[in-house]
Amino acid sequence: MTDGAGGTSDAGAGEAAAPASEKAAPRRRPAWVQPVLGRLLSRWPGRIVSNSVAAFVRLDMFDRSMTIAAQFFTSVFPILILFTTWADSRDASWLADALNVPDETRSVLEDAIQGSEGAAFGIAGTVIVLASATSLSRALTRAFAAIWGVARPRSSLGSAWRWLAVVVVLTISIVLVHTATEPLDVVPPRGLLPPVASFALDVAVALFVPWVLLSNVVHPRRLASGALVFALLMLAVRPATAAWLPHALEVSADRYGSLGVAFTYLACLYTASLCFLATAVIGQVIVNDRGGLGAWIRQGDRASEPSGASDGQ
Fold first, then answer.
1. Is residue 60 part of a domain?
2. Which domain holds residue 78?
3. For a 10 Å CB count at each end of the chain, is N or C smaller?
4. Are 76 and 171 in contact (CB under 8 A)?
5. Within a 10 A sphere around the Cβ of 264, how many other Cβ atoms?
6. Residue 134 in contact with residue 77, Cβ under 8 Å?
């Protein structure tokens, strides 16, 4: 009787489990989804998106973006102070305006500039500041070499000018975005020239940085697609950042002081670094895609093409 009862209970459990599995079956992916998904991924937009996401995750771009943001913070801001000191300007208002520094922490920036006389830097101090700033260029070199699947250029004294040039260009670009585009806002048609100028500046910077750091191993024709995507993305990111950053800096300054301002800047720089590397990955995928656009871009390459860039193929 016990075995029979057990058998009856097992049979009942089996009958109870069957409807549960039947109820769960409709929740699975329908049979028509796989062919549709396959067709979408086989087309150009689907290939670009899927291959870009796969390459971004595989190359650990989230971690690289944080590293570059931290290097940017510790490299570019000291150079801005150094440039201000060289210009013999004790008025830090222009730099504070360019960086959207809140009133609560402007005194920290003013004290740093007013307390740093030209002799305080001197030749040795300038060399130390510039040498430490090249860590940003080296981090960017590693990231772009991984994206394009090429060997990193050999480090030597002869290549030091490339690192310095990139740091200087990135530093100047921050100031130019504010000082060069603001006067254009009053030129008719109002509101049109500043985005155009920012777009051109973003394309130039995104094209120049990897070209210089990789010692022209990757042809500029290949780099152009990523530079254009970056400039297009920044047309949306820059206004959003300009609207969010001042309020975020004020709140951080009220609650946490200068430390909160520093972390807010790091969050903003992380977003910019993420956009910079993500668009570089997208550009690499577009260039190496098997479609007509990729073939058209590659036909202008030199005989020696970079190896290992097969994410889009």
1. yes
2. 54-297
3. N
4. yes
5. 21
6. no
Q: Is residue 64 part of a domain?
A: yes
Please name the residues in contact with 285: beta carbons below 8 A apart, sequence gap of 6 or more.
Answer: 47, 48, 51, 52, 55, 311, 312
**Domain assignment of residue 97, yes or no:** yes
> Taking the mean position of all CA atoms in its chain, how far away is CA 8?
64
Nearest-5° angle of CA 128, CA 133, CA 136?
155
> What is each CA distance from 148 to 102, 235, 263, in whole angstroms?
40, 25, 31
Segment 247-304, tens digit of pLDDT? 888 888 888 887 888 888 899 999 999 999 999 999 999 999 988 888 888 886 644 4
210 close to 234: Cβ distance less than 8 angstroms: no
Quote the pTM value: 0.75
Write out the two tokens for 154: 């050999």
How many domains does one find in the chain?
A: 1
Nearest to 278 by CA among 68, 70, 73, 41: 68
* Tokens encoding 67: 């590293």
Token pair for 289: 């895609």
